[in-house]
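Field reference: "sequence" (input) and "structure" (output). Example, Methyltransferase:
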Amino acid sequence: MVFGSLSIAFDATVLRPRPWTVHQARWAAELIRAAPPGPVLELCAGAGQIGLLAVAGSDRHLVQVDADPAACRFAGVNAARSGRSRRGRVEVRRAGVDDALRPGERFALILADPPWVPSDAVGRFPDDPVHAIDGGPDGLDVMRRCLTVIGRHLAPGGSAVVQLGTPRQALTVGADSGPLRLQALRSYRPRGVLALLGGRDG
């Protein structure tokens, strides 16, 4: 499928790329231009399309993390299609959110695309792999783990753009974000929302 300027490969074993999430990639691309030096991180990357489009106009190194082997395979394929893997600018790590990064790694910009559908609502999306959309009782189980990683690995002056399902979820994340601050919220309801997080001293 076409995702922004990219041709993205995927199949039914991974979450089908949502066209609306082009907005997450474009917001990230805007932020990258003024971000401090350093690489970009994408958590719960799936087939990799959001991170790849975000860095398409820059020379930033991109690290993509997903626990699912099929997602990582497609992320690698799509990085190769984009030409970035040939230039050594994309690294795909098959790992959980909690153990993918080394203690000293810092990122100028972090994307997080976690499952955010509450467990009792996953039946509304029969075509989607359950593991790719089930976010626990309130849809925020994986997002809370992402927040911990963002808090530890965001470079000073950096920012994070995270994807959620509802404004209420975003406000909950803002209240639970520890050293981070909810800086902006963009709604694309009923499809989803995007939240911008940054350091409270930034």
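Residues 69-82 form the longest helix (14 residues).
The domain at 2-10+21-199 is CATH 3.40.50.150 (Rossmann fold).
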